[in-house]
Amino acid sequence: MTGSCKRKLLVIGKAKKPRCFKNIQSLPVTYENNSRFWMTSQISEKWLRSWDAELKSGGNKILLLVDNCPAHPKVSNLKCIKLVFLPPNVTSVLQPTDQGMIKALKTQYRKLQVLQMIQNIEKSKDTKSLNVLDAILMISEAWEKVTQTTIANSFRHAGFKDLSPSQAEDDDDIPLVRMIQSTDEDDNVPLAELVA
């Protein structure tokens, strides 16, 4: 939420081992494949379980916001990751990645893509010669360029606030997540009113 720790990106491609990966020992992203380039529940679960194992070995625990896409299943027996699913049809409003992070990532990626095209023109190469490895290296570099401030602002724009013990909490300063999860009948406010 603060942007102080960024996870490696998960990239989904079509080929299991693209030819451009020949002689490549490691990638700066996690690479998975399926015939449609889509996230699947199997890929999602595998990725979550791998991350959970990493967190367990480091002694860390996290809360992960997940939209209600069918490719994001409820995964049981996670030790260090608590999944919180967003209500239907509110992803564009409540999902922090939709509040600036994705736009910043795409902007950085497109800048790198244009620079690559310019270099190809200067070297008299095909301007469209971009393989999966090139794209992976660029998206990884673009993700590195997304700033901590952009990530923190995206969470803040989605209604999340830093609740460190030093901060007092007014009645009007309740984080949106706690408002959504509220069980008190008096606080049963429609979601549309919470985000207005």
UniProtKB/TrEMBL annotation:
- Region forming the signal peptide: none
One annotated GO molecular function? DNA binding
Give GO cellular component annotations, separated by semicolons: nucleus
Boundaries of every DDE-1 domain copy: 2-155
Q: Which PANTHER family does this UniProt record tie to the protein?
A: PROTEIN PDC2, TRANSPOSON
Question: Which protein is depicted?
Answer: DDE-1 domain-containing protein
- Phylogenetic lineage: Eukaryota, Metazoa, Ecdysozoa, Arthropoda, Hexapoda
